[in-house]
Structure formats: structure tokens, C-alpha cells
Amino acid sequence: MKSIQRLFEIDPWKIKTDQLDIENRRLQESLTSIGNGYMGMRGNFEESYSGDHHLGTYLAGVWYPDKTRVGWWKNGYPEYFGKVINAVNFIAMDLFINDEKVDLATVKPEDFYLELDMEKGLLTRKFTVTLAGATVAFKFERFLSIVKKELAMIQVTATVLAGEANIRLVSKLDNNIHNEDSNYDEMFWQARNQSATNEFSHLTTQTVPNNFDIEQFVVTTGMKHNHVSDSARHEPLTVEQTFNFHLTTNESITLEKQVIVLTSRDVPEEKQVAQIEQLFTDFDQDYLSLKEEHVLAWKKRWELADVLIEGDDAAQQGIRFNLFQLFATYYGDDERLNIGPKGFTGEKYGGATYWDTEAYAVPLYLALAEPDVTKNLLKYRHNQLPQAQHNARQQGLKGALYPMVTFTGIECHNEWEITFEEIHRNGAIAYAIYNYTNYTGDESYLQKEGLEVLAEIARFWADRVHFSKRQQKYMIHGVTGPNEYENNVNNNWYTNIIAVWVLRYTLENYLKFEKEATIQISAEEQAHWQDIIDNMYFPVDEELGIFVQHDTFLDKELMPVAELDPIHLPINQNWSWDHILRSCFIKQADVLQGIYFFNEQFSFEEKRANYEFYEPMTVHESSLSPSIHAILAAELGMEDKALEMYERTARLDLDNYNNDTEDGLHITSMTGSWLGIVQGFAQMKTANQTLSFAPFLPKAWNAYAFHINYRGRLLFVKVNAETVTFTLLKGETLELNVYQEKITLSDTATIDLK
């Protein structure tokens, strides 16, 4: 295993350090990101910092269609590459001590301390500098309110420890911002209007025009302070207010900055300034009161979501960090939104929606939030059904092809092998409908909107297959499976199995709900779909007892990752793409993804044979990989392997496993740590609408515990070395299967750990 890079101390509730790591500043910024579902930012400093770093603030649903730039245009390519755009830096403050600028890249601080309090949703920082004849201690605290989504609060306190100091603070709204991932180093913002007075300032900007009929977003940001400024000024993309304080030894001053952000997604441009002024009136509470309501709201979230781990503080910190970042990104409040793989922490992947949501995030939100949260994720895809149909027509196919990357439902990723070969993601959209229905027991969505989506995805698969006369089987050629380290392969086992499952699931439910359905599937279509179901080709190897990843996988030079010199890892940073594609090494679960999804269809022997064959060749260079392997290893009794994979997914970003966290966190894969505990160690399954468990306790732990919502009940599950305890905290009596035996849970049941 690679050596880990640990920048922060181990603490169950906090991400903290007393070191300013200039060499890894970007990584520190990623790991101290905060958000509230409406907006978020990296852990940038409020004051100017001239060293290498990545300044990033992002607003939910605000994006830009950047021109697709490829060396050779192919028919069917998206016209634009959609991307989240870096927005106004509203925490900005220039700090001066006796007219000398405070810049921690050039002025060495003393007593530096940085802390993200995950329990309370607070980011704090402290340091002391000696500059221009004075020693001054600064303390910063900020939060993005999860109660008042448009509100950000920043507090800075300056205390003179020695000497006299004229402290000048220049508080700014700065939209002179560029994206780091822009193809053309373009500025995505243009000025609309601004005002700066000693009491209130605002800045309104608009995304620059585009040629793709995508709306131009308008954003207005307003700021107020607890002091009246001495002067105020504005430029086209910046407004600022200046505050001057003269302090002697042991004197302090605190400046509180209140920021409100509105976008044209919710409020038209002509009403934004007035609405901000009204919100400042509505939110007229002191800093402490606003902070207290924010902290209380986080407390309520944690009461349901928290996972308790005894005996391993690193594991405890990991799961809480991941849950915090997930809920800071998305909490289901807006059905127009989805979960970007980097959330509010960076620009990689365009910040758009991937299949990660349906495959990895839905199970967590089903258990840790109200059903409407997941239902909003399903509505997001239903609302974009016409765009998915457009994507299919662009490829000359029937039905609907849900995008690999999107903001609107139109595909906006510019890599052919990902965009139009990795079509297995279409099945994940359908699987989420099944998952929601099976978990909640609510069939109302499936009967109407769900069947509309399922039927169009089924039509896509029915058109995308072809019939091999030689084999007398249906096949799917020219695809990329979940293992993106192979492109343009034929008969990827996972793609074929999920295509058949969609056809079968759609047919079954259409026949069940035909009277309620809002669509029609002709008898001819039904017969054709059934023929595909009955005659799909699946590559298998009887001698090895495995499902073959694709037709020619076994012709590769097969070897385990353990035989590679560690200097080659990660291979995606050390090998040419050609070398990777020809190798046997697997980026993430592929065949095993199918076994995870359709677990009950396979025997224990089939699961073990496939796991033991594929996992040793898996480099886990996708953040999505470790969790699936942890879950299956746990089921197979490979407890040490399950723990190894759990630790990798739980601390993937905190320990920078893949050397790629500096450009943002892996938000959607953060669900993997929860999945690894609940679906892995506790073996929670919901197949056939039956809730079952078969827990074990990792050897390194003393105990673990978690809550889940399930069909109107709230359960608390605790596992220690001797027993498993199930407590029904809310709801009606529930039947469970525990170690394949039925129990009836009406209050508390304790079972000896087997």
C-alpha cells in the first residue's frame, strides 16, 4: 500500500493542524472546504495570499458551456463542455499592519492553527505575525448557514500583543476570477452593476454570452459589517469597504462580515438588490445568534447521520469527514440540483452530474434523509428525459441516453470513450428507481414518472444491441465498462447484464402497472425485449468459474498489482494511456459492480471466484472502487481485506491516497465509507423488500453504531465484540432477517455476535 500523506491531526470531530504547509496549500484548501448545498468554497484564506493555491467559490446550478476543444471532431460530439464556474470571492479581505500587508506566503506566522469543526460546520484559523514594529494575533471564523442558505458569515478578530498598530482591513467582493480548468483561460464573468457605501455594498455580475442558447446567469452579492467603514469604492468587478482601527497593546477589534448571495436561478436580476436588502433585514440577528442556529441545525443532522466508531479515531474522523462534506454539498432541498463529483471543492470533472449519484449516493440518502431527498434525485432525471432522448438521437438511436456529464440533461463531456462508449451509466439511472422503490416501498413514482424513464432507457438498449447470426445471441459492441482503463471493448459483461436487467424490470412493472402507466409499450416491443432478455450473450469462462470482463480480457497478459514495482503507481500518473489500455489492470469494480448491484442473483461460490480473480488486478485508482470491494469482501468473510478497503475509501481524501485531492474532494465517492460500514461490515441488504443484517466487528475496532431510516421507522444498530443490538426508535414493529433468521423488532433486540 502507498504511503499516506496526512496533513491534519487525528481527531474524531475536527480537521485540525498547527502547521501552515505552503508546499501542500492546495491540499489543505481542499480538505477544509465548506458548503451549505446552495454555495460552497475551498478553504482559502480571507486575506491575500501570494503563494501557490487554488482560489475557489462555487454556486449551485451556476455553470458555463465552454467550447469543446478536441483535435479531431467526430459526429455526435457535444458542442460544449459544461463546467462549474468559479464565482465571486466574497470572503476577501486585505489586512495591513502599519501599512504593511499581511501575506502568509511572505510573512512567517507564529502560533498558526487551522480547524474545520465538522460537528458544528465552522472553519476557524488563528495566527500571530510580527510586522512593522507590532505583534498582532488574528483569529478568523466563518460558516455558510444551513438555515439561511443565501447567508455567509465571516468574523475576524485582531489583537495587538506588543507595540502599537494601525490595523486596516479592506473587505471586498471580488469577481476578478478565472477557472483553472478553462480551455482558453477565459474570464467567465462580466460586470452588470455595483455600489459601495460605508454601510452596504453590492456587486452584480453576469456570465459572459455563449453560442449555445444556454442561459446567462446573473449573481448579486451584498455585504454588510458590524462597523461603519471609513471609505468605500468600486470597480466593474470589485467593491470594497475599508476599516481603520488604532490599537495599543492588549487591545482588540472584531469585524463581522455578513454576505448574502442571490442568483437568477431563483430571483430575476432586476429584483436581486432589493431582495438582498430585504434579507439583510430578515436576517437581522447578531453573529452569535446566527452561528447558534447554524450549529443547532448541524446537530440535528448528526443525530440521524452520525456513525459511531469506538477504538479507531482515524476511521471515526474519516466517516464523519465524508458525511460532513456530502451534506455540505447536497441535502435534497432543490430538485433542480444533483451531486457533482467535486461538489463545491474544485473544478475537475466540470463539477457536473455523473452516474455516481444513482450508483453510490442514493443508498446513503435513502437511509440518512427523508424519502423526498432521494425522490428529488429521481425527479431530476425525469425532468431531463427529453434531453436524454436528444442524446440518443444524436447517436442515431431510439429511446433515451442519460448523459455521462451534465447540468441540463444534454451530454456535455468531450471525451468520446467516456461520453458515448460508457453507456452502462444508463442502467444506473434505472437502478436508482428500483432502489428507491425497493427500499421505501413507495410505488407511486415507479407507476408513472419512473416507467416513463424506464421505457425510454429500455428502448435505447433494445436499439443499441445487435444480433449475431454466428452466435445466435444479442451483443453490445464498442463500449467502455466501469473499468475506464479499457476503451471500445465488445460485450462488457457488466454493460450486458445491466441492459438485460433494465429490459426485464421495465417489462415486469409495465405489466404490473399498465392501468396506471402514462406510457404505452406495444406488444411488438414487449416481444422484442423478451427475446433480447432470453438471448443476450454473456462472456464467461467455465474453467476459471468467472464472468469475463469483456470478450478479449483473458487474452491480456494477466498479473496482479502486487507484482508491479510501486514506482509505477498510480499508473494513471506514470504510464502512457496506450500502456494502460493494453494492460490487465482495472481502475474500479467492473464485473464486481454487477455482482454488487444484483447480489442475490449469484451464488457465494460465484462471488468468491470473481472477487479473487479481479481484485488482485485492481489498482483502485477510481475513488468509487474501494467501497464496492469492501462490501463484497465483507460478505465473503475477508474481514482484513474489507477493513483495508474501508480505510481506503474513508480516508481517500484525508490521506490523499491517489495523489489527486489538491484539486478538490471526491464528493460522490464519499458515500463509500458509509456503504462500507453499513452494507459491508453490518451486511445490511434490502433485496426483495426485506431488510437483513449479518454484522461482524473489524478486529481493530471496539464497536460501531449507526442509524437508518427505513419505511417510516428509525433504527439504531450497535455492534460490539459480543453482541448486535437493534433498537426501534420510531415507527411500527418491523420484521428483520439477522444471520438468516427472522426476528420481530418492536423495541430492542440483542443477538450474540456470530
Structure in words:
Residues 684-745 form the Glycoside hydrolase family 65 C-terminal domain. Keywords: Hydrolase. Residues 320-674 form the Glycoside hydrolase family 65 central catalytic domain. Residues 17-265 form the Glycoside hydrolase family 65 N-terminal domain. InterPro entries: 6-hairpin_glycosidase_sf, 6hp_glycosidase-like_sf, Gal_mutarotase_sf_dom, GH65_N, Glyco_hydro_65_C, Glyco_hydro_65_M, Glyco_hydro_65_N, Malt_Pase/Glycosyl_Hdrlase. This protein has 754 residues and is an alpha+beta fold. 30% of the residues lie in helices and 24% in strands. Strands 1-9-10-11-12-19-16-15-14 form a nine-stranded antiparallel sheet. A five-stranded antiparallel sheet has the order 8-7-13-18-17, with no helix packed on it. A hairpin with a 2-residue loop joins β10 (122-131) and β11. The longest helix has 21 residues, at 444-464. The radius of gyration is 27 Å and the shape is globular. The protein starts with 13 loop residues before the first strand and ends with a strand. The model has no long low-confidence stretch (mean pLDDT 94).
Observed structural traits:
9-stranded antiparallel sheet; Glycoside hydrolase family 65 protein; single chain; alpha+beta; 30% helix; globular; 5-stranded antiparallel sheet; Glyco_hydro_65_N
